[in-house]
Amino acid sequence: MVNDYDLLIVGAGPTGLACAIAGGRAGLKCVVLEKGCLVNSIYNYPTNMVFFTTTELLEIGNVPMTSASIKPTRLEAMEYYRKVASHFELNVHTYERVDSVERLEDGFRVRSTKMGGAPQEYRAQFVVLATGYYDIPNQLGVPGEELPHVFHYYKEAHPFAGHKVVVLGGKNSSVDAALDLWRHGADVTLVYRGKELSPSIKYWVRPDIENRIKAGEIKALFQTTVLAIESNQVLVRNIASGAESELRADFVFALIGYRPDFEFLRSAGVEYDPKSGRPLINLETFETNVPGLYLGGVVVAGPYTGEIFIENGRFHGQVIVDDVVRKKVDS
User: Fold this and answer.
1) Has residue 1 got a pLDDT over 70?
2) Backbone torsions φ then ψ of 323, nearest 5 degrees
3) Maximum Cα interatomic distance, the chain, rounded to a whole number of Å
4) Contact 216, 190 (CB under 8 A)
5) Taking 80 as the threshold, does the pLDDT of residue 134 lie above it?
6) Residue 3 pLDDT more than 70?
7) 3-state SS assignment for residue 326
């Protein structure tokens, strides 16, 4: 079965939804394909996460967002984006994985697989890849990383109470996890390769983690790298001295960041600058080197995922749709 659309969007995060809203307002026939649930990355955030930012900076489609406090929670954000998608009657296909995006003479052929395994095929004049970056965690590249007690995502602390937990990383995700685990009864050791905690840590969290470390309530090893992970311990080395040691660990959280699916983007024809690793795009329209293929959201920045957030990525959709409309008029 072939489905024809003006604009096909891969990814149902805030940027993808914003793009679909803008497309609908411009009279384009749009569809959004998402391999997980709606705003899948937000769903996978820690259960009790609170956003860094305020509600108005998460809004899309000029629909106001409300929150019980200044900074919205993960649950409030998910409810908001569900209601926005419903309000605009967006055509979103969740649990449908995009397998390939192929440029044709008159547009694109997109092949996908639905949750039950049924193959789908779409034709679209324009395609936007707004696939985010949270689905692929960075890897340590050490023996034992694949063991079942090693996690690259953190949800909540309860299952780890009373256990020895090693948290790897020194930025917001790892610090938030270390504090939450400690507050719920885990024996926590934080391991970070830097000389000190990252300067990007939220200003209201920094005093908390620094005081916990100073009091010895959370142990911290700086300038330390992981050599291997075993069933009940982590082998580490101090970068400065070269000394190696063993840390008891019932569970390990390797919260060292995430990256876009560069392989998928390259398979669609997207080219990257060999030095910076950034995609070759028109920064005024977000169109890639492939005519009619656009990037939206964090994938615009390549490996520099800290440059794009919901706050600025939500505006990409209107920019892209404006360019699509111009191209349709010119054609």
Assistant:
1) no
2) -70, -40
3) 67
4) no
5) yes
6) no
7) helix
Q: Is residue 17 within 8 Å of 42, Cβ to Cβ? A: no
d(CA 142, CA 256): 13
Separation CA 289–CA 282 (nearest Å)? 8
Could you tell me the domains of the chain?
2-135+258-330 (3.50.50.60), 139-254 (3.50.50.60)
Judge whether 253 and 140 are in contact, CB under 8 Å. Answer: no
DSSP string computed for 117-178: S-EEEEEEEEEEE---STTEE-----TTTTSTTEES----SGGGTTSEEEEE-SSHHHHHHH
Neighbours of 255 (CB within 10 A): 24
Nearest C-alpha neighbor of 258 from the set 307, 306, 200, 192: 306
pLDDT in tens, 222-241: 999 999 999 999 999 999 99
What are the tokens at 250?
């019932």
Examine the pLDDT at 62 and tell me if it is beyond 90.
Answer: yes
Q: Are 51 and 71 in contact (CB under 8 A)?
A: yes
Q: Is 73 helix (H, G, I), strand (E, B) or coil?
A: strand
Q: How far apart are CA 178 and CA 196, in angstroms?
A: 15
Whose CA is closest to 124, among 243, 10, 206, 227?
Answer: 10
Return the C-alpha torsion angle 230, 234, 239, 240, nearest 10.
-130
Q: Which of 159-163, 170-174, 182-186 is predicted with the least confidence, judged by mean pLDDT?
A: 170-174
| Dihedral (Cα; 306, 307, 312, 316), 10-degree rounding | -110
The side-by-side arrangement of strands in the sheet containing 244-248 is 224-229, 233-238, 244-248
253 backbone dihedrals φ, ψ, rounded to 5° = -115, 110
